[in-house]
Specification:
By secondary structure, the protein is of the alpha+beta class. The protein has a domain of 81 residues: Glutaredoxin (3-Layer(aba) Sandwich), CATH 3.40.30. The chain contains 4 helices and 6 strands. The strands form 2 sheets. Strands 2-1-3-4 form a 4-stranded mixed beta sheet. A two-stranded antiparallel sheet has the order 5-6. The radius of gyration is 16 Å and the shape is elongated.
């Protein structure tokens, strides 16, 4: 099994996560989920693999979350998944699947916890934040 990333190239967190995967020596399968959204079955499997509820995967910022009243606590998991199926932008990202597990990688350095080779050398995010210093130590 290789590595899969559900990616949005317009998202800095997603770009940083993809860069860390590649810097680890892996060539992931990149799924631009806004162009090719996961099926309902696949999304359910991802939620289960990550141990998240649909509500925990909902993206609020820059989405129709508020206008769809998705903050309503009475909405069922099925209703929230229906909303994500109708509006894939509601699916938070990036989601990464590796042989070591599946994870919503927010912040992007969370990907290091599931990479087969997390020793990627120095890494600085696009915004200048140092994640791994020149000595190979993770900066907290």
């Amino acid at each position: 099994m290789g590595i899969v990333i559900y990616h949005n190239p317009a998202c800095g967190t997603s770009r940083n996560t993809l860069a860390m995967i590649r810097q680890s020596g892996e060539t992931p399968e990149v799924i631009e989920y806004l162009k090719s959204p996961p099926s309902r079955t696949t999304l359910g499997g991802l939620l289960e693999a990550m141990g998240l509820s649909p509500r925990e995967l909902l993206r609020r910022k820059g989405t129709p979350y508020a206008e769809l009243s998705l903050d309503n606590p009475d909405l069922t998991d099925d209703a929230l998944i229906d909303a994500m199926m109708a509006h894939p932008v509601l699916i938070n990202r990036p989601i990464v699947i590796t042989p070591k597990g599946a994870k919503l990688c927010r912040p992007s350095e969370a990907v290091l916890d599931i990479l087969p080779n997390p020793d990627i050398g120095p890494f600085t995010k696009e915004d200048g934040e140092v994640i791994i210093d020149e000595k190979g130590k993770r900066v907290d």
